[in-house]
Each structure stands twice: as C-alpha cells, then as structure tokens.
C-alpha cells in the first residue's frame, strides 16, 4: 500500500512590481457556509451561484451530504441543494471533519444541538486548539448536551434528542459565529432565543434567514428568533469576499503605479471596516456601481497607489475588519508614521495567534512592530526580504505575499497550504495582476 505523502507549500516572492487589472475575487466564505446550511434545512430546491470552492465551505458542504442532503456541484461556483426541511437531516455515519473551519464548527454546533441524533465534530490541529466554550456554555443554558475536551476544545460530541428552550444572552465577545450558533439553535428551541452583541458583527445569518422567509426579531440591540418556523428554498448569488479582496486593495495601495478594479465585492456594512480604516490612512478607494444581490449589498471597488499614513485604529471598527488585520498590518508597515491597534485580543484566537505571528514576520522583514496583549504598534519603515512563517494561517500567507510589492529582497513564506481554505486561486490571480509569486511544493 503506498502511503500518501502530504506536500507543504512555500510561497516564494520576488520583490517589487505593481498591481493592475480588473477581476472578481472568489465568493464570500461566510455567505457560502450559510447558504449550504439554510439551503439544506429549507423546503424545496436552493440554487447557489458564486459559491466559494475553498476547503472551509466545502467542509460544510460535505458535512450536510454526510447528513443525507442531496447536493450537486460545486461546478464553477454553482450548487444545487435539495432541501430536506427542518427535521430532515439524518445521523451521519462517522465524525464530521471540519478541517480548518471555525465557522463550520461553531455554527454546526448550534444547529446540531437541536437534532434528534448525536454527532461528533472534529478539525485540524489549529481548529482543535480554538476556544469552543464560547458556544458550548450558552448552548448548555438552552438545554444542549455537548462534550468538549477539558480545555473546552474540539472534538465536540453533540448529543441529540435534547429539548432546547430559548434564552436571552448578552454576549461577552463580539462574535458573529457565537451569535449565529445561538440563532441556529434557536430555530429548534421552544420560545424565543435572543442575543445582544457588545459591538455589531457580520449579520449574514440574520439576512439569509429572512431571505429564506424565517422571521427575525429585533429589539434595540437585541436580535432573536422564535423556534418552530420553516425555511423556504431560494436562489442565492454569493458576492465576492471583501476579506479576499482586501489583499488586492492593500496591494494596490502600497505598490507604485498600481490600479485595480475589483468587481462584485460584498460591501455589507458589517464587513467594510477595512475600507474605513484604509480611508482613514489616506487610501485612494472608490466605491462604484453599488447594487444589491439577494439581500446583500455589492459594488465594484477601484483602488489606486496611495500614500498611507499611520493612524490609531478606532476600536469600533475592529469587529467590522476582524479578518483583515494581517493585511492591514502590512499596510501599516508601508505607511508613514505609527499605527496603533487596540481592542483586538480576538486576533489571538483565530486560525493562528495573528498578533504574534504577524509581529514576528514583520520584524523578520525589518519593521519595528511591537505586539501588545490586544493589538500592535507598528512604525512604518522599509520592508526587506526574508523567510517568514504563516503557521498554516491562510490570511497571514496572503498578507505577507502582498508585502513583497514593497520589499527590497525576496520573501519566502512557509506553510501556505491553507490558502486554499478561503482563496484557492490566489497564486494565479496574484501573478496575473502583477505579483512575482511562485508556489513551491516540498514533502512535509
Ligand atoms: C465569521 C465570523 C468571524 C470571522 C470568521 C467568519 C462568520 O469570526 O473571523 O472568519 O462567518 O461568522 P468571529 O465571529 O469568531 O469573530
């Protein structure tokens, strides 16, 4: 029997270059996950276009197939789901492996807590070290029975057959994953389930529930659902992911003589913190052709080379740009003056500790970057070449790729396989738009 050897990808970047072109980045990861979940539980056939064919969203898709849902595709971003209705999921025969995907695990944990069968949720090394008590504890107060490790991490054993009841939950962290988890559990709970966030986070779950005809309750800062209603199948056009666009937005800002037009990017106001932060730094970004697709606002973004300056990032923007800080740190490294980020301790529990890993890499590249418990202080400077680690974090790998546009020497980035979780075509798109990027495979 031949043993399958896994390959580790290194991105090798030559310095300099400019970014040019008009293109569309892949579909939004958050919307893609939710389209599979709600489409599976709906009555009737849901047709999705623009679905992100990245490993994370595919893990969600595979989990629903394993629970008996007939899903065809993805084929060039098109997926068809024969919804099984709110009570139509079947017990999976094995554990549901969610790979690197925190969104899959946290949202599924809520949804599965309300099913009649048991399920086991597992993930890779990174996902297995991420905090799950933030969902298992409030779910327990709803009557859910979930076993985690002693450290409060996956694997999670979700016991079905429990009767859930609604709660009112004041969330201690601003997390769309926690909010969504509880709302999905709330679909199966007796009475109403309400959550309040300490600061607004992405609202794709609420929008999509309404798109599937499920009533969403709002009262001041609270959002809720009443259990027991149904979902009606619908068509979903997934916008381009602003979190993927962010790499090219920053790249075009920091590189000389650059101009890109990114088409059909989702600009949901709970996601546009990156545009606000870059605008405060002096970025030349124009939002064109605003329109709405399936309940989500989209636009084309034109970005040109800009003289960025350091700023103190307003804390209210942190949850609205939570996935974009790796590349925003690169923008800060290329800005004149000091950028100060505070109130972002959540970055320490993402796919990697993004404060530590980014500070290490920036320092390797000659930048004065001081990590703090909840953020970073970065003095803009001259990027030099060097070898940095992404520690398997997709967004860190792509952020350091963009740094090469302003570096004086080659940059090698280790452990880049997980770029395929959110942006499978990144190396090709980056090369076509002007980055000197080469992917090297070596046995692990
Ligand atoms: C996500 C929410 C965010 C984000 C993640 C996707 C979602 O996580 O970082 O990439 O789809 O709900 P938190 O809600 O934990 O901040």
TrEMBL record:
One of its GO terms (molecular function) is 3-phosphoshikimate 1-carboxyvinyltransferase activity. It is found in: Cytoplasm. Pfam families: EPSP_synthase. One of its GO terms (cellular component) is cytoplasm. 3-phosphoshikimate binds at residues 29-30, 34, 175, 177, 323, 350. It comes from the Bacteria. Its EC number is 2.5.1.19. Gene3D superfamilies: Enolpyruvate transferase domain (3.65.10.10). Pathway: Metabolic intermediate biosynthesis; chorismate biosynthesis; chorismate from D-erythrose 4-phosphate and phosphoenolpyruvate: step 6/7. One of its GO terms (biological process) is aromatic amino acid family biosynthetic process. SUPFAM superfamilies: EPT/RTPC-like. Phosphoenolpyruvate binds at residues 29, 102, 130, 177, 354, 395. Residues 14-427 form the Enolpyruvate transferase domain. The keyword Chaperone does not apply. InterPro entries: Enolpyruvate_Tfrase_dom, Enolpyruvate_Tfrase_sf, EPSP_synthase, EPSP_synthase_CS, RNA3'P_cycl/enolpyr_Trfase_a/b. It catalyses: 3-phosphoshikimate + phosphoenolpyruvate = 5-O-(1-carboxyvinyl)-3-phosphoshikimate + phosphate. It is an enzyme of class 2 (transferase). HAMAP family: EPSP_synth. Monomer. PANTHER family: AROM/DEHYDROQUINATE SYNTHASE (PTHR21090), PENTAFUNCTIONAL AROM POLYPEPTIDE (PTHR21090:SF5). Catalyzes the transfer of the enolpyruvyl moiety of phosphoenolpyruvate (PEP) to the 5-hydroxyl of shikimate-3-phosphate (S3P) to produce enolpyruvyl shikimate-3-phosphate and inorganic phosphate. Belongs to the EPSP synthase family. This is 3-phosphoshikimate 1-carboxyvinyltransferase. The lineage of its organism: Bacteria, Pseudomonadati, Pseudomonadota, Gammaproteobacteria, Chromatiales. The gene is aroA.
């Amino acid at each position: 029997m031949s043993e399958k050897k896994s390959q580790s990808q290194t991105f090798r970047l030559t310095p300099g270059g400019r970014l040019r072109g008009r293109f569309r980045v892949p579909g939004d990861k958050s919307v893609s996950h939710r389209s599979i979940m709600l489409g599976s539980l709906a009555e009737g056939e849901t047709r999705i276009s623009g679905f992100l064919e990245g490993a994370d969203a595919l893990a969600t898709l595979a989990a629903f197939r394993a629970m008996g849902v007939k899903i065809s595709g993805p084929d060039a971003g098109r997926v068809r789901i024969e919804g099984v209705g709110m009570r139509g999921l079947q017990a999976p025969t094995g554990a549901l492996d969610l790979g690197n995907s925190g969104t899959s695990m946290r949202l599924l944990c809520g949804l599965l807590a309300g099913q009649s069968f048991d399920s086991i949720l597992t993930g890779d090394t990174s996902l297995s070290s991420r905090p799950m008590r933030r969902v298992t504890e409030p779910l327990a107060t709803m009557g859910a029975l979930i076993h985690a490790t002693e450290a409060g991490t996956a694997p999670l054993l979700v016991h079905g057959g429990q009767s859930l009841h609604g709660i009112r939950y004041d969330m201690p962290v601003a997390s769309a994953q926690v909010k969504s988890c509880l709302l999905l559990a709330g679909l199966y709970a007796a009475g109403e389930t309400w959550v309040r966030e300490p600061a607004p986070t992405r609202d794709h779950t609420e929008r999509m529930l309404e798109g599937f005809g499920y009533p969403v309750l709002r009262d001041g800062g609270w959002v809720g659902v009443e259990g027991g209603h149904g979902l009606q199948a619908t068509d979903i056009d997934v916008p381009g992911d602003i979190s993927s666009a962010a790499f090219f937005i920053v790249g075009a800002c920091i590189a000389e003589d650059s101009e890109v037009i990114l088409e059909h990017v989702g600009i949901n106001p709970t996601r546009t913190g990156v545009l606000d932060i870059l605008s405060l730094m002096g970025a030349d970004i124009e939002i064109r052709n605003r329109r709405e697709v399936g309940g989500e606002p989209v636009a084309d973004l034109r970005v040109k080379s800009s003289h960025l300056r350091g700023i103190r990032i307003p804390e209210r923007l942190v949850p609205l740009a939570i996935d974009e800080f790796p590349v925003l740190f690169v923008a800060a490294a290329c800005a004149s003056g000091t950028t100060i980020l505070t109130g972002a301790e959540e970055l320490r529990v993402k796919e990697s500790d993004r404060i530590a890993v980014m500070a290490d890499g920036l320092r390797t590249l000659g930048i004065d970057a001081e990590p703090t418990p909840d953020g970073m202080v970065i003095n803009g400077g001259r990027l030099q070449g060097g070898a940095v680690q992404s520690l398997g974090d997709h967004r860190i790998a792509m952020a350091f790729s963009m740094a090469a546009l302003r570096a004086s020497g080659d940059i090698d980035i280790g452990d880049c396989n997980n770029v395929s979780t959110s942006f499978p075509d990144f190396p090709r798109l980056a090369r076509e738009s002007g980055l000197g990027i080469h992917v090297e495979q070596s046995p692990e």
